[in-house]
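ok so for the tutorial part 2 we go from a plain amino acid sequence to predicted structure tokens. step 1 is just haveing the sequence, like this:
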Amino acid sequence: MNSTTFEIIASLLRTRSGLELGPDKQYLFESRLAPLLRENQIPNLEALANRLCKPSAEALISRVVELMTTNETQFFRDRSPFIFLRSALLELHAARPKNAEIRIWSAATASGQEAYSIAMTVAEMAELKDRNIEILGTDISLEQIARAQEGLYSQFEIQRGLPMQMLAKYFRKEQTGWRVIDQLRRTVRFQRWNLLDDLKPLGVFDIVFCRNVLLYFSPGTKQQVLEAIALQLAPDGVLFLGGSETVIGITDRFAVRKAECGAYSLAPEAIARKNGRAR
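step 2 — the prediction. this is what the tokens look like for a chain of 279 residues:
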């Protein structure tokens, strides 16, 4: 792939999704876009880049973005965030009126394993049985959202992180894989959303999982996304980032809550701004 082709596709991804890929990631273009080339009988990436520049290429552009932004995910990834999630939920439960809803957002949820891991964590907590809890999973990819809504996973996906007792309790075996039981699926709602879009329509959340997403963004885009999340996070809410992600040096809106599981709270200054007390 020549440099012009790379820059056309990379620039498109940067603009549409925030995804920042350097020249050392050319292999990702070749591997992830190969099915698209076959489907559309496009001979190579150079020809694809030429078609992406045409005014009628919107559908093709959307497909490129979907293929390139599909991130790896698994059930209960890294474990420790889900252990701390229980503590955070108990704190919020104690602090909220009995009739108040607790809202949890799994941003860039991909095929839904993270959102369902959150749902299973909630379902296992007897203290929350009478609490109304909304779990929202969003992703830029309509294909991934459809997969998440279907809740059907392969044996390989099931084996990656899902405890056997959770498998037995919350999944049923089908001919083509394992499906999340209806009772659990009804506790999670999925919809398409781009993290670069305005987050206000999503409302305010008590807990946000935005894990292993920011590492693909430029510093400026990381700041933009984090500060947008800060505006949608409750003053006593918790943000979970991935193990190799941080807010340090990017934004002052957050303070470390529990470093070992990537948990952050709003910084006092951010809370003051949210409450309209900042000067």
